[in-house]
Amino acid sequence: MSTFGQRISIIDLIMKRPASASPDFFSPQVSSARRFYLDLNPPRGTALTVVCGGVEQCAPDYHIQRASFPFHSIEYVAHGNGKLKLGRRSFDLQPGSVFSYAPGIAQHITSDVQKPLVKYFVDFTGDHTKQWLRRCHLPAGSVTNIFPPTEIQPLFDELIRNGQRGTRQTPELCRQLLACLGLKLLETRAPLKNADSLAFTTYLNCREYISTHYQQLRTLEQIAHENHVDTAYVCRLFRRYDDQSPYQFLMRLKMNAAAGQLAQPGALVKNVAAELGFTNPFHFSRVFKSVFAVSPDAFRKIR
């Protein structure tokens, strides 16, 4: 089933089924499902292309075992627990688990009898799909977690809603939503290994503290002190789990708040700067411009 000829025979079989029927690669052991189907046999040489997707409420006896699959796929566990085997690697599934597979990768998925899986999926194809999955840090045959576990569910729901509408814009909308999903996976991925759990928890605590107290915070030393770590460790955590430094995150929050205040009639730059902990309005203006590429005065004219 991993050869090109065998993949074509699978797709041919799919295309011969009635439009109302599910392709044979779906398990019948589901309590309910919402699915959509687009072009199940897209031409070669296409860009990233969504072919189908949906969400399944798995039955307690849900069990699917395949030697391969005709498309690339991303699956996301919204609720419940289960077991997954990709190739020779085994994983526990829980809310927030996300995994991918592709043609040539065997999958074995079972649901917990007491806590059946509810899982979303999107199947896709196209040139450079493997490279795209690697950029998302979810290469075919791998598993990651996201935090919080519900963070990507709205994107999947929007994908299904647009997929089921079936308008002329549907294929492009679904492609763009899949691209957004990849970016969201980069933003929300969390470590799998237990050894990383303490460090990741500390990072989340630091991030939450900044988010809650950003208006009063001025230095990294304050953040480190309140979280019982040193400043160098806080910086290492953000390099490991984020795409910005803790200072950049703090300044972004401050400047977003500043932009909201400056949009109000009669707001003075010096007063906004002081309220956000800047003793020097010129320093505030430089930071504001570094974030938004315009000065506070220019921003007010735009508004």
Percent in helix: 40-55%
Output the radius of gyration. 24 Å
Average predicted confidence as pLDDT: 88
Provide the succession of SSEs.
HEEEEEEEEEHEHHEHHHHHHH
* Number of structural units classed as domains: 2
Which term fits the overall shape?
elongated
What would you call the structural class?
alpha+beta
The counted number of beta strands is 11
Number of helices: 11
- Determine the CATH topology of the largest domain: Jelly Rolls
- Largest sheet at a glance? 7 strands, antiparallel
Question: Describe it for me?
Answer:
- This protein is of the alpha+beta class.
- The chain has 2 domains: 4-190, Jelly Rolls (Sandwich), CATH 2.60.120; 196-302, Homeodomain-like (Arc Repressor Mutant, subunit A, Orthogonal Bundle), CATH 1.10.10.
- It is built from 11 helices and 11 strands.
- The chain has helices at residues 4-16, 129-135, 153-165, 170-188, 197-213, 220-226, 231-241, 246-262, 269-275, 281-292, 296-302, and strands at 30-37, 49-58, 63-66, 72-79, 82-86, 89-93, 97-101, 107-111, 118-125, 143-146, 189-190.
- The strands form 2 sheets. It has a 7-stranded antiparallel β-sheet, covered by helices on one side.
- Helix 5 packs across helix 7.
- The longest helix is centred in the middle third of the chain and has 19 residues, at 170-188.
- The N and C termini lie far apart (59 Å).
- Residues 1-20 have low confidence and may be disordered.
